[in-house]
Every structure is written in structure tokens, then in C-alpha cells.
UniProtKB/TrEMBL annotation:
UniProt source species: Arabidopsis suecica (Swedish thale-cress)
Cited Gene3D superfamilies: 3.40.190.80, Fructose-1,6-Bisphosphatase, subunit A, domain 1 (3.30.540.10)
Lineage: Eukaryota, Viridiplantae, Streptophyta, Embryophyta, Tracheophyta
Cofactor entry: Mg(2+)
Protein name: Fructose-1,6-bisphosphatase, cytosolic
Fructose-1-6-bisphosphatase class 1 C-terminal domain boundaries: 203-332
EC numbers for this chain: 3.1.3.11
């Protein structure tokens, strides 16, 4: 039976990536090693997030422990774990984290051919109330052997070789693309392994959910206002869309990927570039959306064609089902 085969022939994320890489005869397993270090970081954060509510009891993040020392906040702790895991992989040269103002340049003896941009724990406003949060990452290759600089990551998203996120939700899920579709893996806590549970995720062409912080509506531009109005009061006889907004990008994008619909973080009068960061929020999620058959648009162009000038640059973003993003593109074209 097929189901039985799945249960006994487990496709772990390592096995899956090794299979994918074996298509490239020149591959020496570097990517697989890099990914296994990212996976380790995700498992650590998952375990820390699950214990967060017990912090007072056992002295975890953000609380004072028995020795009276202030413990690290969960986001700081997560960042430390990812930076150390990535450096020790021996496969990275430049790291950009949302938590660190400056890029990290790996010391020469530990350098490798990848650059990783990441948000170790996104959705910080949701940490203390137990709502889903996540890690987002994107991977570039270093295309020279000179001294690495930030120029090595100030490249358009379409040059990423892989992107993904891990969601710490009702289950822990890692969603990954290496440019051959989008694949979802669920952590089996008893095995400590991510198992392929969602092969080749495709986003529905059209959805019935929109996801946006409507509290900012008074400051929106024309196209965003018109679009959301259309979601609520459609004039073409179609049913109104539902609104879902967690306020954790990973959770909102994950739902959009699986159910279809659109996620918006537009520009507004107070933040003319929106809120979300190009390198480690907009690019990885846009990469995944396109790989799943959806689209990602900035209000001006295809999100993956942006060329960031600064590592923590922001951009407005509209991403999700192909047809839904077409509608917002049309509204911006009318302007
Ligand atoms: P953070 O990096 O401080 O956690 O902010 C990023 C988060 C995203 O996960 C989410 O999409 C967005 O901020 C929500 O912002 P808002 O509270 O303005 O709606
Ligand atoms: Mg963030």
C-alpha cells in the first residue's frame, strides 16, 4: 500500500535534498551540509518556543534564572543559535540577520561558498502569547574568491538558490524551495526529523482570503484602498473575501500558500516603503510564492527583480494566488 510505504520509507529533508543535489554531478554535498545546520537551528528554536511558557519555572528566555542572571530573550537566543550553526557549518561567508545591524563576515578558515540572509524569529509581537512565529531564510552563492562584502548579498531575489521558512505552530513545519518547486516537511518530534508531508505545493490560482493589517487603512494609497474595498464589496457578483491576519508573516504566508488568497503589506503614509524587509522577508517569501505558481509584486514591479541597496531595506509587498495578484497589479497600472 502507498500509505504504508510512506510510513515505513521515510523521506527526511536530508534524504530529499541529497536526492535533488545528486542531479548535479559537480555537487559535493555543501548545500546539504549547510541545510542540515539550518535545520538544527530550526529544531532548537522549535524546542525553545515550545518551552517558552515554562520560562518562569525553568529559567528560559527573558526571565531571570536561579543564579539570578538575566536570560536571553527568545529572539536573541534564536539569533545566536543560527549564527553559530551557520558559521560552524563551514559553508558560509556572509550572514545577514534581522537581529544584527551589521552583516557577519565569517573568518577565512571557516568560509564556504554560500551567503545566508535570515530572520531568526519573525513575528515578535506574537512570542509572548503563544501564537505561531517562524524563521525565514534565503541563500545566495558567492560567485568569486575575493574578500566577501555586503555586495555579495545585495543581489536581486531571483539570484537566490534557495529559500524557506520554518513555522513554529500547532506543528513545526519547514517549507523549502531550491528552485524546483516548493516542498513542506513536518517535524516528527519523536524522531527529531523533518519528514516530507507536503510534496510539490501549488498555490490555488485564486483564493477567497485577504490578509492585511487593516488598522493602517487611513494611511493607504489608492490602489491598496480600492483592492481591499473590492475584497469586501465585490461588484462583479463574486462572494466577498474572508479576512485572516495573524500578524506573523510566516503564518500568514503559510496559510496563503496552502489555501490561496493574497497577503499584503503595502506602503502607507507613515511607512512609504512598507514594513517588511527585502532580503530576509520579502525575497524568500516571493521566491516560494513564484515556485508554487503564485506571484509577488511590490506595487511597482516583480518583487524578485528588486535590487536592494542596503541590507535592511524595506519594500511594500503583495503576494499570493496568481489571479489575485493580477488584480492588484491592474489597479497599480491604472494609476
Ligand atoms: P518583526 O520582525 O518585528 O516580528 O515584524 C515583522 C512582522 C511580520 O511577521 C508581520 O507580517 C508584520 O510584522 C506584522 O506587522 P503589523 O503588526 O504592522 O501588522
Ligand atoms: Mg521580522
Amino acid at each position: 500500500h502507498a500509505a504504508d510505504a510512506h510510513r515505513t520509507d521515510l523521506m527526511t529533508i536530508t534524504r530529499f535534498v541529497l536526492n535533488e543535489q545528486s542531479k548535479y554531478p559537480e555537487s559535493r554535498g555543501d548545500f546539504t551540509i549547510l541545510l542540515s545546520h539550518i535545520v538544527l537551528g530550526c529544531k532548537f528554536v522549535c524546542s525553545a518556543v515550545n518551552k517558552a511558557g515554562l520560562a518562569k519555572l525553568i529559567g528560559l528566555a527573558g526571565e531571570t534564572n536561579i543564579q539570578g542572571e538575566e536570560q536571553k530573550k527568545l529572539d536573541v537566543l534564536s539569533n545566536d543559535v543560527f549564527v553559530k550553526a551557520l558559521v560552524s557549518s563551514g559553508r558560509t561567508s556572509v550572514l545577514v540577520s534581522e537581529e544584527d545591524e551589521e552583516a557577519t563576515f565569517v573568518e577565512p578558515s571557516k568560509r564556504g561558498k554560500y551567503c545566508v540572509v535570515f530572520d531568526p524569529l519573525d513575528g515578535s509581537s506574537n512570542i509572548d502569547c503563544g501564537v505561531s512565529i517562524g524563521t525565514i531564510f534565503g541563500i545566495y552563492t558567492l560567485d568569486h574568491t575575493d574578500e566577501p562584502t555586503t555586495e555579495d548579498v545585495l543581489k536581486p531575489g531571483n539570484e537566490m538558490v534557495a529559500a524557506g521558512y520554518c513555522m513554529y505552530g500547532s506543528s513545526c513545519m519547514l517549507v523549502l524551495s531550491t528552485g524546483t518547486g516548493v516542498h513542506g516537511f513536518t517535524l516528527d518530534p519523536s524522531l527529531g526529523e523533518f519528514i516530507l508531508t507536503h510534496p510539490d505545493i501549488k498555490i490555488p490560482n485564486k483564493g477567497n482570503i485577504y490578509s492585511v493589517n487593516e488598522g493602517n487603512a487611513q494611511n493607504w494609497d489608492g490602489p491598496t484602498t480600492k483592492y481591499v474595498e473590492k475584497c469586501k464589496f465585490p461588484k462583479d457578483g463574486s462572494p466577498a473575501k474572508s479576512l485572516r491576519y495573524v500578524g506573523s508573516m510566516v503564518a500568514d504566508v503559510h496559510r496563503t500558500l496552502l489555501y490561496g488568497g493574497i497577503f499584503l503589506y503595502p506602503a502607507d503614509k507613515k511607512s512609504p516603503n512598507g514594513k517588511l524587509r527585502v532580503l530576509y522577508e520579502v525575497f524568500p517569501m516571493s521566491f516560494l510564492m513564484e515556485q508554487a505558481g503564485g506571484q509577488a509584486f511590490t506595487g511597482k514591479k516583480r518583487a524578485l527583480d528588486l535590487v536592494p541597496e542596503k541590507i535592511h531595506e524595506r519594500s511594500p509587498i503583495f503576494l499570493g494566488s496568481y489571479d489575485d495578484v493580477e488584480e492588484i497589479k491592474a489597479l497599480y497600472a491604472e494609476e
